[in-house]
Amino acid sequence: MKIAVVNSGSSSLKFKLLKFPQGTVLEEKLVEHIGEEHSDIKDHHQALEALAIDFSEIDVIGHRVVHGGEKFHSTVLIDNEVIRTIRELIPLAPLHNPANLEGIEVMQKFAPNIPQVAVFDTAFHSSLQKEAYMYALPYEMYEKNHIRRYGFHGTSHSYLLKEAAKLLNKEPEKTSLISLHLGNGESICAIQNGKSVDISMGFTPLEGLMMGSRSGDLDAEIVLYMQKSLNLSVEEVDTILNKKSGLIGVCGENDIRTILERNDERAKLAIKMMVRRIHKYIGAYFMLLDTEVDAIVFSGGIGENSQVIRDKILDKAILKNLKSFVIKTDEELEIARECYQIVKKV
Ligand code: ADP
């Protein structure tokens, strides 16, 4: 069986073709700069034309969809109702869901007879208990405005769980982990018997760890202070929190390799702050998990490649006897696996 995986962003369209059940990659294509000023590719339709895909060979198409809200707890076969619901969720993911929808709709135009599947970044975290996903805000803000923790990077953590379970020679359903996805975006997930019980990212991917350019956790009053006392607009505050904070904010850059090479105070401080935040979460997750932790897992560009950062994180008495794995995450393979399970059932 041949499974296509599509990751449609606002300015890029990624396509990967895999053969199943082997999971081998047959083809990989990418179009970037969609809709940008000097680009020849004006929209996703043109992007798909540029990819020149041979649809005659494809059995199913899997789409990465960032936000499934409270509506989608698992992977689904796409129909009109699913499309309508993903559209309804746009206010929760204004940057991502519209681009994901573009990808779905344009694929449907080109390949109306091939089944399409949506795999949600949030779905793995739908196992969170209410006390884990609620914010201590007025309850109506949850009921009416859907403000709650959703968590992201779910496809990655789910993949890491399955691969770690193999290494542990255990069933994923019996595996408990602390799973770290450390890239430009960073998240840490507490997994108990195969289920996500807590995740550092929240209502949006901004919450939690100190990331490449995102602040992660901070006192919410700071946001109001920036607006009220520093007279910054909502857009300016948004840019500061998402694009000018984290490692970039503290030391001016976000590539761990360069930061580690530098020896100045800011660079050292940025690393110390990032690792300290990770330690806080690991400590908290040990308290939350009701089972023994089988392993700590490192993934993402930093987690996979930086021995120095991994060593700093592991340099704590509580982690001394814990197994640690470095696993290269593969979200596309996980999406394709999900598609394979769905079409096998049909
Ligand atoms: P994204 O979240 O955008 O997918 P990645 O998972 O690719 O990001 O991670 C990107 C980050 O990984 C880079 O900013 C850099 O800090 C780090 N990184 C990549 N390669 C290496 C390496 N060989 N050694 C140390 N850090 C690395």
UniProtKB/TrEMBL annotation:
<keyword id="KW-0547">Nucleotide-binding</keyword>
<dbReference type="GO" id="GO:0008776">
    <property type="term" value="F:acetate kinase activity"/>
</dbReference>
<dbReference type="InterPro" id="IPR023865">
    <property type="entry name" value="Aliphatic_acid_kinase_CS"/>
</dbReference>
<dbReference type="GO" id="GO:0005524">
    <property type="term" value="F:ATP binding"/>
</dbReference>
<dbReference type="InterPro" id="IPR000890">
    <property type="entry name" value="Aliphatic_acid_kin_short-chain"/>
</dbReference>
<feature type="site" description="Transition state stabilizer">
    <location>
        <position position="153"/>
    </location>
</feature>
<comment type="pathway">
    <text>Metabolic intermediate biosynthesis; acetyl-CoA biosynthesis; acetyl-CoA from acetate: step 1/2.</text>
</comment>
<keyword id="KW-0963">Cytoplasm</keyword>
<protein>
    <recommendedName>
        <fullName>Acetate kinase</fullName>
        <ecNumber>2.7.2.1</ecNumber>
    </recommendedName>
</protein>
<dbReference type="Pfam" id="PF00871">
    <property type="entry name" value="Acetate_kinase"/>
</dbReference>
<feature type="binding site">
    <location>
        <begin position="255"/>
        <end position="257"/>
    </location>
    <ligand>
        <name>ATP</name>
    </ligand>
</feature>
<dbReference type="InterPro" id="IPR004372">
    <property type="entry name" value="Ac/propionate_kinase"/>
</dbReference>
<feature type="site" description="Transition state stabilizer">
    <location>
        <position position="214"/>
    </location>
</feature>
<dbReference type="GO" id="GO:0000287">
    <property type="term" value="F:magnesium ion binding"/>
</dbReference>
<dbReference type="GO" id="GO:0006083">
    <property type="term" value="P:acetate metabolic process"/>
</dbReference>
<comment type="similarity">
    <text>Belongs to the acetokinase family.</text>
</comment>
<dbReference type="GO" id="GO:0005737">
    <property type="term" value="C:cytoplasm"/>
</dbReference>
<comment type="function">
    <text>Catalyzes the formation of acetyl phosphate from acetate and ATP. Can also catalyze the reverse reaction.</text>
</comment>
<comment type="subunit">
    <text>Homodimer.</text>
</comment>
<dbReference type="GO" id="GO:0006085">
    <property type="term" value="P:acetyl-CoA biosynthetic process"/>
</dbReference>
<feature type="binding site">
    <location>
        <begin position="181"/>
        <end position="185"/>
    </location>
    <ligand>
        <name>ATP</name>
    </ligand>
</feature>
<keyword id="KW-0460">Magnesium</keyword>
<feature type="binding site">
    <location>
        <begin position="301"/>
        <end position="305"/>
    </location>
    <ligand>
        <name>ATP</name>
    </ligand>
</feature>
<keyword id="KW-0067">ATP-binding</keyword>
<keyword id="KW-0808">Transferase</keyword>
<feature type="binding site">
    <location>
        <position position="331"/>
    </location>
    <ligand>
        <name>Mg(2+)</name>
    </ligand>
</feature>
<feature type="binding site">
    <location>
        <position position="7"/>
    </location>
    <ligand>
        <name>Mg(2+)</name>
    </ligand>
</feature>
<feature type="active site" description="Proton donor/acceptor">
    <location>
        <position position="121"/>
    </location>
</feature>
<feature type="binding site">
    <location>
        <position position="14"/>
    </location>
    <ligand>
        <name>ATP</name>
    </ligand>
</feature>
<dbReference type="InterPro" id="IPR043129">
    <property type="entry name" value="ATPase_NBD"/>
</dbReference>
<feature type="binding site">
    <location>
        <position position="64"/>
    </location>
    <ligand>
        <name>substrate</name>
    </ligand>
</feature>
<keyword id="KW-0479">Metal-binding</keyword>
<keyword id="KW-0418">Kinase</keyword>
